[in-house]
What we know:
The structure is a homodimer.
Chain A: H1 19-47, H2 54-72, H3 75-87, H4 95-113, H5 116-139, H6 142-163, H7 169-177, H8 183-207, H9 222-236, E1 243-247, E2 253-255, E3 262-266, H10 273-291, H11 308-322, H12 326-339, H13 349-356, H14 373-388, H15 397-409, H16 433-453, H17 457-462, H18 467-476, H19 486-494, H20 501-514
Parallel strand pairs in A: 1-3
Antiparallel strand pairs in A: 2-3
Helix pairs in contact in A: 1-2, 1-3, 3-4, 5-6, 6-7, 8-14, 8-20, 9-10, 9-12, 10-11, 11-16, 12-13, 14-15, 14-16, 16-20
Amino acid sequence: MDTTEHDARTAPAFTEEDARISELLALLRPLADLRAVNALAEWDQNTALPDGAAEVRGAQLATLQGVMHDRWTAPQLGTLLEELGTVVDQPKYRDADRGLVRQTRRAYDHATKLPRGLVEEMARVGAGSFEAWRKAKSQNDFALFAPWLARTVTLQREVADRLGYAETRYDALLDLYEPGMTATKLDALFAPVRETATALLRRIQTEGQPVDASCLEGEFPVPGQMELSESLLRFMGYDFERGQLAQSPHPFTVEFGSPYDVRVTVHPDKRFIQAALMAALHEGGHALYEQGSAPALTRTPVAGGASMGAHESQSRLWENAIGRSQAFWHTRFAHVAEAYPRQLAGVDAETFTRALNRVRPSLIRIEADEVTYNSHIIIRYEMEKAIVNGNAAIESLPGLWNAKYRDYLGIEPESDSEGILQDIHWTGGFGYFPTYTLGNLYAAQIYATLRKEFPDFDQRLAGGDTSFVLRWLRERMYVFGAIYLPEALIQRVTGERPQPEYFTRYLTAKVEETYRLPATSHGHTHA
Amino acid sequence: MDTTEHDARTAPAFTEEDARISELLALLRPLADLRAVNALAEWDQNTALPDGAAEVRGAQLATLQGVMHDRWTAPQLGTLLEELGTVVDQPKYRDADRGLVRQTRRAYDHATKLPRGLVEEMARVGAGSFEAWRKAKSQNDFALFAPWLARTVTLQREVADRLGYAETRYDALLDLYEPGMTATKLDALFAPVRETATALLRRIQTEGQPVDASCLEGEFPVPGQMELSESLLRFMGYDFERGQLAQSPHPFTVEFGSPYDVRVTVHPDKRFIQAALMAALHEGGHALYEQGSAPALTRTPVAGGASMGAHESQSRLWENAIGRSQAFWHTRFAHVAEAYPRQLAGVDAETFTRALNRVRPSLIRIEADEVTYNSHIIIRYEMEKAIVNGNAAIESLPGLWNAKYRDYLGIEPESDSEGILQDIHWTGGFGYFPTYTLGNLYAAQIYATLRKEFPDFDQRLAGGDTSFVLRWLRERMYVFGAIYLPEALIQRVTGERPQPEYFTRYLTAKVEETYRLPATSHGHTHA
């Protein structure tokens, strides 16, 4: 399957014959190359770097970042953006040009508005904060982390003030990851999600038929998991000619020049079969998005995904909507059973799929199911708003965290180590957690559109075909890279601005099916 | 073992308190970082890059090389070199400063004397030449390759003319790989090597007791070979905290910031046990040299080895002088036999070592033994001189090649594919082949010095110890990086300028021992 061919009528392209656009591209392509090489050095740092080389690699990355910063702040680039900004809306330019100017302007503004000293201070505080967090978590002592968190808050507020915002400081941070998103919009999108999740959890606990997930646990040797991961990626249409599957301590997707070099990793767990398989589907979703970006966009800031939320929509669509459906495992389960005949003796596809959909509140976000996952995110979102916009006292945060876990999930951490100190995310900054739940909402909305477009969706999938899904997503979404803002992109793909009801209906149907609850939803059910 | 600690009295350091030296270092360190990142991108290209990403990676490398070229030709650097050139010989500066200025001057001259257009043309001709060579070899048709070789000759002559030389154009090319070396010096160094090799080959063929090397062939599963390679590297003192062992189609050593990140690869061959083991020792020798470079020199052009010849001396010293000795395998062979008990049943360390030293003329350089190896090199050296300095007609070269093989090795290729077209080396340029034989000469001279310093050398080695060798090499040689020109370095290490008799004596003793010939040499014999 050639994944780089697109219909010439729909595939985006720049107006390269325009002198200003071609001048802009001549500045941006080397910058994209440097970014790709920087990403490669970071990937190597995560997968291969010897322990003793940490310092020299740090120097190499700092040099590269310095070279990039000089180019991102070049006056020639500023002048060109000024000039193009006044004309790019004219009809002689294309959407790709407008997206290019918009994305370049964002990066230029970030580079010029945040002084070097502030960026360096953030790196220093990030590193100190990471060390403090590690100690605080191991000693279960939030007080060790608190002063670093306070410094992070101060710096993040300065970032927001320098970048500017319409309503609240938090909007400026959100915009870094999800251009155009605001807390006001998020509040409206998240409220129904929170209510639905709480209600579903109550229904499961009172009326649900228990789900036995024991088939997912056992002894699953790693080579078999790697082979299965590879076969799932092939099934999705991931192109190994332009990618690679590797192992790393945490699964991730990385690209060094989309759509041509997009690599994924998984982290097989000998005791749990689902970790690597679900990671393959999740990272595979990210990777398909990058591999689907139009070749004409390569080596520019509009190659790849539109935002973190848009990206997460594709990992969730492939992992959850498709990859936790009965139709999907109808053909795939046989491969798993064949790889582990002893471990999965007596298990069928339906039991396996139900197990993958088991709901169980836990304290740890990364282990959460589809129902409770968003509660973890919304808790962090609400706390981040309180920290950045309000003036929530740092020392009050562990109590606030615990109270929210009790309210939203009915469980409470026994220690801060498994509560507010559970992960490293607040050693960096704020604003990207919400993109995870946004990704779920976008995914459900796109999934509903797909099912409307293909009334025989489940039959096709259960027949062992995913190519129609990938083709449609490519033509409707992937090919456009970051040309459109995420909100506009979702509207183009689905016909509507993002809204939460697709997700709440999807989740309700999924839970009712998995837990054999009486149907209340009017949404689709799973085949 | 801490490999970064050196005696403060002998470890080199720059006169950083000097304003000009510190300004120079401030320019050079980012350049070293960019070079390291470029090397990383090339390593990834050789070990991991998906096929579809060749073009985008090419663009990334071109961008990096452009950034480096701009910095290497910066007027500020030229001015600084002028100023330092007039004062650096004063006693207030150190050898490290002088080496730094010399090595920087070399790189600056290359960058400024070779115009961009010429460098790009060389890259284009190199790529075209590679394709033509591939076709010519597969069709056994030298005529397909001849016009490309002619273009390479023209370009290499232009390089020589632009860089300048005292005696002949070939000296300018040699100097690229072995600073200070000339054809006149090489002629004197190589003549005894050629004579000794020819004479030894005759003695082996007329009086030698046959060597049975069949124990090296069989079925040797790859994982065991990787474990053995790792254990040999550990035995030599290779530091895995600052390195890594991987597999690749051709073994090589690469560094991304010596002495902190020096990686080696091997290429196990299931049917021949010696390929991976000898590669581990060979690449391990290169790597020990890089890992031994003084930390103070890191991120500068004097970190790492002094020249290709100096580098090759270390790979040959560890692979051949040490790694093909009875004393070495006295303790190591047990590990090989343990890994492959069935394949090596009835084989002892002595038989194994003799097999590793078998001499057999062949047409292919990379498969050659220690006796015939240098004949392959000297043939190429003589031909390169004839091509670059003389005016040897391109079409006459296959005949010349075959005649030399008949003269020096007593065998003649039946086709150009296994003759002049056997490898890709003449698709690039000329001048580096001689460094392989130079490496053998340097290695033997250093080895003789080592044996004089440690009269119980064989006993210690046979007792399972290599640490005394590594320590001595580090203190005498590795720590100085590229501070000294290779000729001066060899004099510092051994007390004498390079000369060929150490090698001819070493080789004679080795052959007499392996083939049980009556001793004629006065050199050491192997325990």
